[in-house]
Specification:
By secondary structure, this protein is of the alpha/beta class. It has helices spanning 10-13, 29-37, 50-56, and strands at residues 3-8, 22-25, 43-48, 64-67. Strand 3, helix 3 and strand 4 form a beta-alpha-beta unit. The N and C termini lie far apart (30 Å).
């Protein structure tokens, strides 16, 4: 079964765990990139906070990325 992952500031992503998403809190660019590199093959969609998306840039390939509204 496919998984949805959420990457970004803890205060913005914590609640998604209640819906069954894989929550990966990341407070800075290094943590965002580490979380991205650690995604397993079961992750089909990644939701990023705007700050996480800016930190990640274009990683090329990987799962579908969606950015939360600001």
């Amino acid at each position: 079964m496919a998984t949805i992952a959420i990457i970004g500031e803890a205060v913005r992503v914590a609640g998604y765990g209640l819906a069954g998403a894989l929550v990966l809190p990341a407070e800075n660019a290094g943590e965002v990139r580490t979380a991205w590199r650690g995604l397993g093959p079961e992750v089909a969609v990644v939701i990023l906070t705007p700050a996480a998306a800016a930190s990640l840039g274009d990683p090329g390939g990987g799962p579908l990325r969606v950015v939360m509204p600001a």
